[in-house]
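Table S2 (continued). Query chain:
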Amino acid sequence: MRLMTLAAAALLFATPAFAQNVKDSTSILNELMPQDSGDSGGAVDVKKTRGLKKPAAGSTTAAAPAADPAATKPASSLIVLFASGSADLTDAGKAQLDQVGKALKDPSLSGMHFRIEGHTDTVGDPAGNKALSQRRATAVVAYLASQFGLDRTKFVPVGMGEDGLAVKTADQVAEPRNRRVVLINLDG
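Corresponding output:
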């Protein structure tokens, strides 16, 4: 009996607590909504610009161009769980993607295109992580297409590997917050 209790406790603590929380479809929808491109009279809504302020009109300081145009687009970062070292979705991963599918079926997002980024932590070699993250991004697209009838051409799966860590770590550090999927509204 004690052995079963220890095994159950080990399983419970092996899964990060935050990974058990599924982001709901309404939150995902709100994060992916296109940004208002209208003039707000000079006011900057920090929520919409993710804390970046636009230069004031007539400013002599030129803004540096973004390295990635998608960096300024509406995005939702999600914990989508896969079996260790594979692109097989877990039940928890499917539960999260079910919420994504509901959000993407909303009429306000119809006709829009999305980049699906797969990210890894720094455990393993970078080339292997890049390939794994690409397979995972592709698996997300396949799941959304098969379960929700979404057009695969609306998605661009991109394997980021260890690039763009959510939490900076040294090599070979198993940081669960870095193993994530990011959806970016390319038309937002």
